[in-house]
Amino acid sequence: MEGTSTPISREELQLAARNHGMPLEALRYDVTPVGLHYLLIHYDIPAVDTASWRLEVGGCVARELRLTLDELRGRPAVTAAVTMECAGNGRAALEPHIVSQPWLLEAVGTGEWTGARVLPLLEEAGLRDDAVEVVFRGSDRGVEGGEQQSYERSLTIEQLAAADPLVAYELNGAPLPPQHGNPLRLVVPGWYGMTNVKWLEAITAVAEPFTGYQQARSYRFRAHEDDPGTPVTRMLPRALMVPPGIPDFITRQRTVVAGAPVELEGRAWSGWGAITEVAVSADGGASWAPADLGPSSGPAVWRAWRFSWTPPGPGSYELCCRARDDAGNVQPLEPEWNVGGYANNAVQRVAVQVD
Question: What is the CATH number of domain 238-354?
Answer without folding.
Answer: 2.60.40.650
